[in-house]
Amino acid sequence: MAGKRKRGAEPVNGEAKKRATGATPNNDPLSPITIQIITGSYERALHGFTATIPRATLNSIQEEPQATLTDTSQKEQASTPEDSSTRVSFSDTFLFNAHRSSLTTLALSPLSPTTSKITLATGSTDAQIQLYSLSTSPPAPSSVSKPTLTPTPIHENPQNRELGTLQHHASTVTHLAFPTHGKLLSASLDNTIGVTRARDWTLLSSIKAPVPKAVGRPSGDTAAQGEVPAGVNAFAVHPSMKLCVSVGRGERCMRLWNLVTGKKAGVLNFSRELLARAGEGKFGRGEGLSVVWDDEGEEFAVGFERGVVVYELDARPRSTIIPSPRTKVGRLRYLPLENKHRKVLALSTEDGRVLFYDTTAAAILKDNAAQPQDGKDSGTDVEKTATFLGQLGGRTVGVSGRIKDFKVLVTPDATTHPQNKRLLIITASSDGAVRVWSASHQELEVAGAELENGEKEVEKTLENGAISAKVNGNTTSERQIGKLLGTYETGHRITCLEAFIMSAPASVPEDSTREKEAWEGAESSSSDDDEEDDEEE
């Protein structure tokens, strides 16, 4: 019976696949953009929902000139589309009770053109890692169902399902990352970084960081009496996949790890002067809370409680960032720009803003700066500050809640239509609001060019395209970048967020079953299919 095929499993491809599923791929320049958004919360809920953005909305934003918002009515008119054809629509896709306690971190595996699935990993304070398989295909219109208690429609997809649990950590999971399709890295407060193989979810190695020495109990320490604060707060993998940088609790240093050998590659201490420039006062903890590499691996940034230090590839500090007005710093992310020679770092704050800084402009200003009169290096590289480009959100536009996490995506038609390339920024506030923003590369390019021309050009920029407001009794002007497209209230206290653009075509119905067998380690053969055909006949 070899060569026989199951009835109803006729391959579907091309236009036939579109007609069979009712969904169109996201790379169509006329089809709407569908974003799958996933949030974790203190309430242990893993909430997934989609945001569908019509192309007309992005086109209208690109065509309209930048204007100054002066009153509340104009802000609401600019941020809320009037026509239903240009309104961003939200719909729920799944809601899982993922963990026994609050979620701390999320991670998505890289998108692959060969499959319509993506793996989601979730970490929690219960020391466990949950794995889920999510569909990357936009939901079909026929799958919508109307709930009885909420006006939000539901697009439930049976292909979104749980895979299993990893239990190789003994304390809170603080950070997760998929550097490649085949590896999952996880950090925990048990002072380990685990490397797991995604094919069969086997723990390949565990990198052990030393326990810091007890030098007194810092302010805000939650360690038990007689213990010292310890654990890995965050890590970042170099694009070469050979080097990893980590920062931990209770130590004023960052550690370099050789991922080829799994051993320590070096330790770089934070000097007292550097911590002072990064906003760490006398009673500050002085520990790094986050770290991130840029896409090219030419620089990385370490985030502290109230500031950021940008390092060069050779681990020399290049510049520092202190938000103004001063506030706590949250998530750090580098923006994917067309100009690879420019580095723009985005960071979220406790007062509801996402700030954008040009970290390469600081290096240019450093090279052109006057040398000391004695001809000696004063060692003040760290005193250089990155160039502030603008902000997104904030009290001036009615956003004051702490932004716990955010994600930056690029419209899928960027390669075929570079002039239409836009950034989609999804922000998650601690009050449960998820906002979708749109920004263009031109806004960041123009801001960088204007700020490099001098103070006079800066004043002109602030007069045209900025919002004036009173913060703590002082009148300030901040250059606003981007525009609000839509807001979704989750009803949960959000702790972490992930998102991706759903661009894969809908898969054949049998794919979910075969993939489940593959995850469980069973290999399907043609003989098994033949036996099922015989039973049906």
From TrEMBL:
<protein>
    <submittedName>
        <fullName>WD40 repeat-like protein</fullName>
    </submittedName>
</protein>
<feature type="compositionally biased region" description="Acidic residues">
    <location>
        <begin position="526"/>
        <end position="537"/>
    </location>
</feature>
<feature type="region of interest" description="Disordered">
    <location>
        <begin position="66"/>
        <end position="88"/>
    </location>
</feature>
<feature type="compositionally biased region" description="Polar residues">
    <location>
        <begin position="23"/>
        <end position="32"/>
    </location>
</feature>
<keyword id="KW-0853">WD repeat</keyword>
<dbReference type="Pfam" id="PF00400">
    <property type="entry name" value="WD40"/>
</dbReference>
<feature type="region of interest" description="Disordered">
    <location>
        <begin position="1"/>
        <end position="32"/>
    </location>
</feature>
<dbReference type="InterPro" id="IPR051959">
    <property type="entry name" value="PAK1-Kinase_Regulator"/>
</dbReference>
<dbReference type="InterPro" id="IPR015943">
    <property type="entry name" value="WD40/YVTN_repeat-like_dom_sf"/>
</dbReference>
<dbReference type="InterPro" id="IPR036322">
    <property type="entry name" value="WD40_repeat_dom_sf"/>
</dbReference>
<feature type="repeat" description="WD">
    <location>
        <begin position="424"/>
        <end position="447"/>
    </location>
</feature>
<dbReference type="InterPro" id="IPR001680">
    <property type="entry name" value="WD40_rpt"/>
</dbReference>
<feature type="compositionally biased region" description="Polar residues">
    <location>
        <begin position="135"/>
        <end position="151"/>
    </location>
</feature>
<feature type="region of interest" description="Disordered">
    <location>
        <begin position="506"/>
        <end position="537"/>
    </location>
</feature>
<feature type="region of interest" description="Disordered">
    <location>
        <begin position="135"/>
        <end position="160"/>
    </location>
</feature>
